Task: structure prediction
Amino acid sequence: MTTQPSNFPIIDQPLSPKCVRVCQNRTCKKQGAAKVFAAFTALPIPDVTVTASSCLGQCGNGPMVLILPEMVWYSGVQPDEVSLLIENHLLGGQRVKQMLYYRFHPQKSN
Ligand code: FES
Result:
């Protein structure tokens, strides 16, 4: 058995560790997800990839936004809230608590 070579090919593309998935499936679209996606793509965010996503399995709570690799979920995101999300979370590293999806990020009452 041979061992793995230590010189793996270097991928000729910048790695984007952070990714924003904006659900563009039917239910989220009815709730305005296209405008949310447009708001994300209108503002270039360094080292962050924004992609349209198929259903994230949380229909009815949209527009749903999932931030990877941290697995942070935002629900009911409105286009005019996107800049806050970018500024606080993606650039500032602080979750926007009032926009977090309650099912996956339950908030303590006190
Ligand atoms: S349609 Fe967006 S979560 Fe299902």
Q: What stands out?
A: Residues 23, 25-28, 55-59, 62, 64 surround FE2/S2 (inorganic) cluster (CB under 6 Å).
